[in-house]
Amino acid sequence: MGIDIIKSITILLDRCFECGTIGPLDFHHVVPKSKGGTQMIPLCLLCHSKVHGEHMLTIRTLAKESRNRKIKENKEKGIKTGFGRKVGAVETMEKFLSKPKNIEIVDLLKQGDNTVRSIVEKTSSSLGTVMKLKKIVEDKDTPVLP
Fold this sequence. Notes:
The protein is mainly α. It has helices spanning about 5-10, 45-50, 55-75, 95-100, 100-110, 115-125, 125-140; strands spanning about 25-30, 40-45. α5 crosses α7 (about 125-140). The radius of gyration is 17 Å and the shape is globular. The relative contact order is 0.10.
């Protein structure tokens, strides 16, 4: 594949697969992850809601089932499972921005030639973390680490 084709494909990952909207995106599993699906497409919230319609709660249920299954598997293997911070725990912006992985994400965002999806894959970070850092980087009034 030529560079232009690869660049075009990369750019498309920052747009809604259905309507082409640029902005906050969800990554929709074509086959639910809890059912073994691995392929995802980027969808804006409106299109993602259209896919699931009134069954948007089904997504939450599938995610919860998947999380519970992962916890159970880890417990059986003797692996301690911790998903995120404890409820009610607060992290300061300074602490959030000073984490080595978040500094790496900020650097990749500042380069300008990385998609959100590619940063998620390169850093093994959550989409939410990358999107939060992207918003911080794009906000000219927020001081960001060098």
